[in-house]
Amino acid sequence: MQVFELGERAIVERIRKLLGNPDIGDDCGFIRIGDEILVATSDMLHQKTDFPPQMSGYQIGWMSAAVSLSDLAAMGAKPTGMLFAIGLPGDTETGFLDEIIRGIKTCADHASTRVIGGDLDAHDELTIVGTAIGSVKRENIMYRSGARENDLVCVTGSLGGAGAALFALKQGIKCPADLLAKLFEPTPRIREGSTLAESKAVTSAMDISDGLAASLHELSRANENIGFKIYAEKIPTHPKISQILKPKEALKVALYEGGDFELLFTVPKEKIKILHEEIDLTIIGKVTKKNILIEETTIEGKTCVKPLNEKGYEHLRHRPQTRSRPQDPITDTNTKFDITKY
Amino acid sequence: MQVFELGERAIVERIRKLLGNPDIGDDCGFIRIGDEILVATSDMLHQKTDFPPQMSGYQIGWMSAAVSLSDLAAMGAKPTGMLFAIGLPGDTETGFLDEIIRGIKTCADHASTRVIGGDLDAHDELTIVGTAIGSVKRENIMYRSGARENDLVCVTGSLGGAGAALFALKQGIKCPADLLAKLFEPTPRIREGSTLAESKAVTSAMDISDGLAASLHELSRANENIGFKIYAEKIPTHPKISQILKPKEALKVALYEGGDFELLFTVPKEKIKILHEEIDLTIIGKVTKKNILIEETTIEGKTCVKPLNEKGYEHLRHRPQTRSRPQDPITDTNTKFDITKY
User: Which residue among A221, A300, A319, B45 is buried most deeply as judged by most CB within 10 Å?
Assistant: First the structure.
């Protein structure tokens, strides 16, 4: 059997068993050092699926740093250093590499960390593996598991910005600069993650890199016997989305498209007030006993509750075309530009 | 200007300046945490240059772990965890992935560490980035700099085994199993590195992944105003090399071919005795004021001292061919199988 027939979750499960380490599967790995937990995460990005031609070198660098920093943020860890293994095609211009490095540095600076090392290699396809190392106090760390019935479900920032920008690029529609920035220069929520962790109020957390719906399903799998009820009207879609999409479409993008590096977390009701004062968050629903439901208001003003499908994109199921050179990943329909894979 | 016209050292220098972190350039990055120094390193390996067809999945996995662990060993750090970002081609069989994971696990077990996380991705070319994280007491850490005139120059284990095995594979000569193991399953010298660090006797250290001559030049660059005098007869060539190469050729391979993941280090004379009792080491020369010289005995019995050329292989200068599919990296002369790049 071929790996791609299995899907990512089954492969990770297989690897976890082979390695005999039950902790593997979350986005980060942990090492306990006294009162601190060292958190580390690696992410592989490459030309064909992650760097569309509209992306500048600076944005490629920024994104390569941001995806791993977002994983740290989800656990409440503060980054202490980053490593980058960079595989460069033979015809890479030094100016382009400089731009990548500048993007990496600016994102690392933004998260108050720095690059401590890495590796350079010749590679047919531009490939960047960023590794972020961080730490968080043992009593503060946020895991995916821990959500309890009646906890509030919250997200930071706004959703759908990255998905809407991708839609605009695909359709050749003019896209507002701040939507494009959501897609190509997402802000890892380090400060927010750290604040949430220090509050000790959060019962479970993860980042929404795979889309809100997929992340809710993921969170439900990480917690036994819980579900969610989400209120569609509460979902904070990005204010500029309306320039590109109608409200119904905007909601779909916010639910099912990835690339929004916001945090999804659960908090007991009595502890929400203090968090509200510290970070930009929105309550979008509550933790229930089972099922993942979404409540919407129909045009006729009726309340309608229905299951929220996962529509999760497992990228290892999408078998890539073998090509001799990278194609335009956005305009070429045979190649999927994948913003839901981190 | 294109990156590949610069060569690796110039690129690293450029990146170091752009990042504003003068520590970058050694194989590992450092983070100070109290009395401990956290050491981390990432290495990118991929099909075309690192995994010849004679290499099994198990060996690919082992090698991917060994290269980064060797970097930790050179600093005297004990590994605390590893991450692997693995890019898999579309037609990868699950059994092959299992073998890679088994190789990774066995090597990690051997170094008393474990895999704590990673990333899986679809990629046209099998690409593995291993990251090793370790720690070492602040007062014990070994750097490349610190060598002093008259210190003894030492290596662990034996040299030339990997290079001789590669030669045998290229020529289609039968190769003893333990030479092949030196090439495909090198042992990262974690125990030796740790013992050397704890002895506090070592003044400078690095691993010999790029070949002894290149490593001596690298060590000389890391130390101001020092050189080396190496005695050819002292170099511990692998005992099985004689089955494949004549003594002169064996010496060349030991000097100029990479892939031997042994440690190269300098120690003051008065401290060598205690190390001799603890690890398998050979004194091959001494630290001098300048130049890197090698003393050989000619066939006529004369002593001859000459400069030891670097013959360092900077892999980024070797521009890879762009191909639609991986070639046999050993038998295809257009593609260099590179054992000197870690």
Answer: B45
Count residue pairs from A and B with Cβ separation < 8 A: 273
Backbone angles phi and psi of A26, in degrees to 5: -70, 165
Min Cα–Cα distance to chain B from A67, Å = 12
Provide the CB-side half-sphere exposure for B322 (13 A, CA). Answer: 12
Q: Which amino acid is at A243?
A: Q
Cα nearest neighbour of A314 on chain B:
B121
Looking at the structure, tell me whether residues B41 and B117 fall in a common domain. Answer: yes
**pLDDT (tens digit per residue) in A169-219:** 999 999 999 999 999 999 999 999 999 999 999 999 999 988 999 999 999
Pair (B79, B158) in one structural domain: no
pLDDT, position A323: 31
Task: Name which of A16-30, A154-168, B247-261 the model is least confident about.
Answer: A16-30
Which one of B23, B87, B320 has the shortest CB-CB distance to A90? B320
pLDDT of residue B30: 81
Residue of B102, B131, B335 to mutate for A, most A C-beta atoms under 10 A? B131
Mean pLDDT of B300-314: 81
Would you state the pLDDT for residue B25? 57
Is there a contact between A123 and B46 if contact means CB atoms under 8 Å apart? yes
What is the token pair recorded at B130? 């291993």
Residues A53 and A167 in one domain: no
Rounded to the nearest angstrom, the minimum Cα separation between A83 and chain B is: 7
Contact B131 A83 (CB under 8 A): yes
Q: A121 to chain B: which residues are within 8 Å by CB?
A: 44, 46, 49, 315-316, 341
Does some domain include residue A327? no
The pLDDT value given to residue A341: 47
Specify the higher pLDDT residue, B34 or B101. B101
Q: Residue B6 — pLDDT band, cuts 50, 70, 90?
A: confident
Instruction: Flag whether B130 is in a domain.
Output: yes
Spatial strand order in the sheet of B292-297: B204-207, B263-267, B152-156, B281-288, B227-231, B292-297, B303-307
- Which of A81, A86, A91 has its CB closest to that of B40? A81
- If asked whether residues A165 and A209 sit together in one domain, one would say yes
pLDDT value at A253 more than 70 = yes
What one-letter code names the amino acid at B189? R
User: Is residue B245 pLDDT above 50, yes or no?
Assistant: yes
Residue A312 reports pLDDT greater than 60: no
My answer on whether A119 and A157 are in the same domain is no
Looking at residue B321, its pLDDT comes to 33
What is the CA A254 to chain-centroid distance, rounded? 13
Tell me the CATH number at A185.
3.90.650.10
Q: Which of A279, A122, A249 is nearest to A187 (CA)?
A: A279
Nearest CA in chain A to B12: A120
Asked if residue B105 has pLDDT above 80, the reply is yes
Q: What is the pTM of this model?
A: 0.90
At A286, the amino acid letter reads: K
Answer for the pair A12, B84: CB distance below 8 angstroms, yes or no.
Answer: no
Cβ–Cβ of A316/B123 closer than 8 Å? Answer: no
Mean pLDDT, residues B45-52? 95
- A124 to B320: CB separation less than 8 angstroms, yes or no: yes
Does the distance separating the beta carbons of A124 and B123 come in below 8 Å? no
Assess whether B116 and B162 both reside in one domain.
no
Q: How far apart are CA B116 and CA B121, in angstroms?
A: 17
Give a yes or no: residue B342 inside a domain. Answer: no
| Residue B2 and residue A91 in contact, taking contact as beta carbons nearer than 8 Å | yes
Spacing of C-alpha A301 from chain mean position: 33
Q: Give the domain extent around A279.
A: 152-307
Question: How many structural domains compose chain A?
Answer: 2
CA-derived radius of gyration, chain B: 20
> Which CATH number do you get for residue B111?
3.30.1330.10
Residues counted in chain A? 342
